[in-house]
Every structure is written in C-alpha cells, then in structure tokens.
Amino acid sequence: MQKSRALQRSGKALKLVRIEENNDRLKNESVSTLTACSIRNDAMGASLCKGAQKKAVGSWVNNDSENPFEHSFTKKERICLRETYQRLQDPKEIIGRIFLDIVNDVAPEVKKVFGVERVPRPNMLKMPKLGGHVARVNDIFDQTTSMLGYTENVLGAWQLIRKTGRAHTKQQFLLENLNQLEKNYFQVVIDYFQEQFLPYLTGEKEGQERKKVRFAQNYTTILIEDVWKRFFSILIAQMTDSFEQERTKVNQAQTRKALTPHLMPDGSKKKQKESQSQSEQEPEIKEKEPEQMYEDPF
C-alpha cells in the first residue's frame, strides 16, 4: 500500500512538472508572438508615418525651387517689367521692326520658315506666318509681364515661357538646326531683340511717344536695363531647356515608330474601322409612306 501511494505521489509530481513546463513553453511562445507583432506594427507604423516621396514633376508643374521668376526678381522689379512695357505706345510695331532686321540681316536663313523668301521687305509683316509670329511675341510679353508685375502669378508666367519653348518643336527647321553648341536660335534672336528693344523701354529712342501709366513709378535707366536683361536671360534658358526636353520626346517617339511600325496604329485604317462601326450602329431610317386619305362613307 505504501509503495502504491508513493508511486501515485511520484506520478502526480511528474504530471505537475510537465504541466509547469508546458505553461512555461506557452508563455515563451506568446511573448515571442507579441514581440514579432509589435515589431511588425512598428514597421508598418513607421512606413505609414513616413512622408510620401515626391514624384518626378514635369517642367510645367509647380516647383518653386526650379522657377527662376520666383527668386530672380523682387516685387518692385517685377512691377518695373510690367510698367515699362505698358509705357510703350505701340509695342507690336516695335517688335515687328526688330523681327524684320532679324529675318533680313541677323538670320536670313529663317526667311523660308516664315514664308517671306520672295517677299519685299515692306510687305513681309503682311504675310501670315511672320505677322502672326510678331503678334504672338507681343502677347507673350504682355501676358508674362502682367502675370509678374500685376497679378503676381509667378508660376503662370513660368509655365507660359516653358510652353512657348515646347511649341517651337513643331517647327522642323528648329528640330534639325537648333544646336546649343553651334547656333542656338533662341539666343541669337533674343540677344538681338534685347539690344534693340531696351532703348525703347528706357526712353532713349527718339521719336517714340510714351504712354502715361497711372500710379507708375519712376525707374532709373540702370534698373530698367538690369531687370530686362535678367528677364531676357531667363527667356533664353527656359525656352531652350523646354525645347530640348520636348525634342528628346519627339525623337524617342519617332525611333519607337521606326523600330516597331506594326505596333503603331495606322491612322487611315483606324478611321476606316471607326466609319464602318458607326455606319453599322446607325439604324436605317425608312421613309414613311404618305398617309392615304379615304372618303368618309357617312
């Protein structure tokens, strides 16, 4: 009896020891699980709390660090740009005279671009390409100086200049001949334009009546020249940069089209398919027969 009781006690003791071991093992597993969960949660929280990375932005998107108009001019200097341009009696006429010099003397190779290679000088501005270009240049100056010096839309002024540079890629002559190392036509044109345009802005050019701008300030000749020279330098840099970026895209698109012509949609086939599908979808409208009239039997 004593032996059996002793065996029972030892068996119970072994069971208790095993239960305690199991409990310890479960505790360790739960602790490790909680630790792993906390680490995972910390990592997830850190990733969620981490600031979103900035995506690559195009040349037209708001990025103050890249916009030269933001830090190149004070408010007074931006107003100076606007007011000195407003004082010109007929800026479009001045721009036209300067472009006549550019087309005939500075860069005569662009005569063909503007369609004036066989047109006498007095009639050149009447031609649609050259006359339209002069009008657009006047509008760009008017809008840019207004956004800088009146509405303070610095971003809009920058976007307008970048858009103008990209638009010049539609001209095949510039795609083939504009080269920053040899001949940058933006620099050639704007440098000469600056040289001829500044005397009108400062009032040095004789015989040019100046409009009176209400509440306009008086600016020294040195300030006007300095502000406008910086403005023209920004035009050259921004138009050239945006043009080169757009030209790269155009060249890449042409390369893809040449290498994989079977993947490029054929415009004529596409239009033909669209017209066929449209004709199939249109219900046929039958002409209504004329209503027959019967005599009233009554």
Automatic annotation (TrEMBL):
Residues covered by region (Disordered): 247-298
GO molecular function, one term: heme binding
CDD domains, A to Z: Mb-like (cd01040)
Name of the protein: GLOBIN domain-containing protein
Species, as recorded: Steinernema glaseri
